[in-house]
Amino acid sequence: MKKIRYIIASALVSIGLCACTDTWDSHYSKWETVIDNTEIQAVDEPAADFLKTAQDYSKMYELFDKTGVIKTWQEKNLMYTIMVVGNESTANANQPVTKAEGSEEKVTLQMIKDAQERLKGVAQKTGLSYSNSVSDLAGCEVYLKLENLQRTGSFKLRGAYNKVASLTPEEREKGVIAASAGNHAQGVALAASEYGCQSVICMPKHAPLSKITATRGYGANVVLYGDFFDEAAAKAVELTTEHGYTFVHPFNDPEVIAGQGTIALEIIEQLPEVDAIVAPIGGGGLISGLAVAAKSVNPKIKVIGVQTENMPSMKESVEKGQVITYNGKATLADGIAVKTPGDLTFDICKKYVDEIVTVDESEIASAILLLLERGKTVAEGAGAVPVAALMSGKISGIRNKKVAALVSGGNIDVNNMTRVINQGLIKSQRKIFFQTVIPDVPGELVKLLTLIAGTNANVLSITHERSQHGIDMGMTAVSLELETANEKHVEKLMTMLKDHHYFVTLK
């Protein structure tokens, strides 16, 4: 029976099913179900509905005998773990969650204040720094809340620590477990180390080495399993079953949300006249905490969420009026690449978040570059999306207002830094690629390069090809990579080349 339960647990984690805790409460001990190719039988309607949903997902039966019989669910905690295990940081993550009773009432201002007390001496009170560069682009007063300078390099410490701190001594004694490839892993590991309890973090085998090393550095036992996150999550369920660990959800948990909400209290203390707070949205834990805190203190404060166009799961859910799973694409903002937001966070966002906007990959890259170059701060993709939204004019009604933009994390993979910087340079036209054709005679290439030098453009690379397909006899193709100042510089360069009868194709 134990083996059957684990197989089914793994299946549910992999396909990302959701269920209500009240369903588990009232029915888990009395379900008697026979699952086969065509039919599901159950002792009551809620169980039948849930299992029909399970049946609709592809290839569930391949994970266990088609004629297998499930008679009882004996471990409620295991089922909770099955439903809540999720990933906050990868595009392949599924986010099963438990149904929240009482929606936003599950998270209160008092809970956030209590979290603030717990976090004293643990989480840093991060700075709120005015940014001239972002302000000029956005047309408002922008203050950067620098959670990228928080311990572990991310806001995630706040929620993880508050959750671990709120556990009973007995729960901590069992040890805590999480499945993550990113910032949540480090937050849970550090929180557990502060309380002297064991932590286990299941990560995919191909998680960035820097994050694996950092998580181990905080004292966690890192278990590398599977090529993708859902395989690592299934491993976490297996270990929870075997050892009785306490699972720490990355976002759909009241205590985690309350911990994240302490950021808003800091912002209001640092900038009492703040008009709006802009924050990233993945599963929704961060913005839910911010929204409850901000609206409780001052209902006039606007709370704006930002998602990537490649994974707008919360935006789509709010627009459709229900939690949906969005199968998006990979993104620079991997920390908010969440397919399915939490139901608790969804309810809070629906009530308190004023607007959700999206940004594209080039806008994210430009924001990372601006923060690095002008703000002298390193932001990961998820941490840069609020600035990206402000730079690109995506947020309405904030002109001349005081706006706090949350730089939520700085744990960018250094191996991606060059690619991100390059994208940002191309987006801002500080780097261009173009091709032209010149006569294949001595001196023509020098002539072209002399004209380019006269505009103060810097040649980074050049390719000279006589045999390129489609090039007429007596001509040669020249491809150039140039360093330029801005769009106006590029426009001036293109006009000059056209005036000298060069046909130019920008790549």
Descriptive report:
The protein is α/β, with parallel strands linked by helices and 507 residues long. It folds into four domains: 2-76, no CATH class; 103-150 and 254-424, Rossmann fold (3-Layer(aba) Sandwich); 156-247, Rossmann fold (3-Layer(aba) Sandwich), CATH 3.40.50.1100; 429-506, 2-Layer Sandwich (Alpha-Beta Plaits). 44% of the residues lie in helices and 16% in strands. It contains 20 helices and 17 strands. The strands form four sheets. A six-stranded mixed sheet has the order 4-5-13-10-11-12, sandwiched between helices. Helix 13 (285-297) links the parallel strand 10 (276-280) and strand 11. The longest helix is centred in the middle third of the chain and has 17 residues, at 254-270. The model is unreliable at 1-104 (pLDDT under 50).
Compact summary:
This protein is of the alpha/beta class and 507 residues long. Helix content is 44%, strand content 16%. It folds into 4 domains: 2-76, no CATH class; 103-150 and 254-424, Rossmann fold, CATH 3.40.50.1100; 156-247, Rossmann fold (3-Layer(aba) Sandwich), CATH 3.40.50.1100; 429-506, Alpha-Beta Plaits (2-Layer Sandwich), CATH 3.30.70.
